[in-house]
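Example record for the data management plan.
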Amino acid sequence: MKLSLTLATLASAAAAANQFNGLSYNPKQLKTGACPTVDTVRDDLSILSKYTNQVRIYSVNDCNQGEPVLRAMQNTDWKVQLGLWVSDVESVFQADKKELMRLAGVFDFKKQVSAVIVGNEAIYRKEQTSAQVAAKVRDIKAALAQAGLSDIPVTASETWPYYDPTLISAVDYVNVHAFPFWEGTPIQDAQDKIFSHIYDIKKLAGSKKVVVGETGWPDAGGNFEAAVPSLSNEQRFMKEFICRANMEKIDYIWFSAFDEAWKPVTNASDVETHWGIIKGDKTPKFASPMYDCKGFVPSSKPSSSASSSSASSSSQSSASSGGKSSAGHSASEISDLDGIDSDLASSLEESKTTKTSAASPFAITGFSAISLAVSLAALAGSAFV
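Corresponding structural encoding:
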């Protein structure tokens, strides 16, 4: 009786939720990082049901995350985007693929699974090429089709400078990450910054849908250039992004559900425990509703500064030359997964703090023709530094 009541409560609350399209969610226990159980996931979903009915996880195999998440969602209206981890360790991906197909034989994927996401910023981390990730996307699509699940969309998650035509050709929809915070953007410019990226990616994507797979703003920790973490800035970015995304019918997954106290705090990532909409003790950061779109007026729509092909090429040059164009996951998130080399994770964390020396053309808005030409010339030179 108690179980039935809990499930009914979850189902009812999830059906009524409409504040977020979805939330990034790591089901590991918040204080210790211990592996989840069905009960701990069910408790998390009960809290999150006030805000959404969809979460995204990043690996079905790491810490056996897929099983308790799917089991906790049974007989509810919850949806999950199931992630498969991709790195330079092939066995990690293969283990995730094997577990995905096992779960497909146990649970009702057609009811519970809204997407399968192959990889998370593996190209940004230089652990895979776009061709390698694209091949893995096609591999998973074929495996799901063989299991009678071809209707489930399959995509890959990547930061905006690294979503190229090769990867776009393989995915069912473009799942792009963009974090103005990690570009050192002051909060008053963050809205235009992220939407300039979205518009340029839409040009590259053609007829394929573009979804913002991750974005957010931390409420505490160290500044990143002109980007300042604070509760008010987190709420401002939340309102401006979500209200505008709703107006423009852009789907998104907000990063993230909870502050995760178990993540290591270093000089390079002291914001990593502060991205959630819920505190680490599972109490809300904000009064409800967290944002209000009544009377919201978006800032002027920025114009694209480059063609789809040249924009992608130039932005990749900026990122490869040391620029922090968009948020990659911290080493604390990467090294937590099975098979990830700790030295590689540490080097990634160090690269995350490298200061951007040249502007990407994706970020240019409202410049004169002369300023644009100068900026692009500076960018071209920086690629060889």
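Summary line stored alongside the record: The first strand starts at residue 23 and ends at 24.
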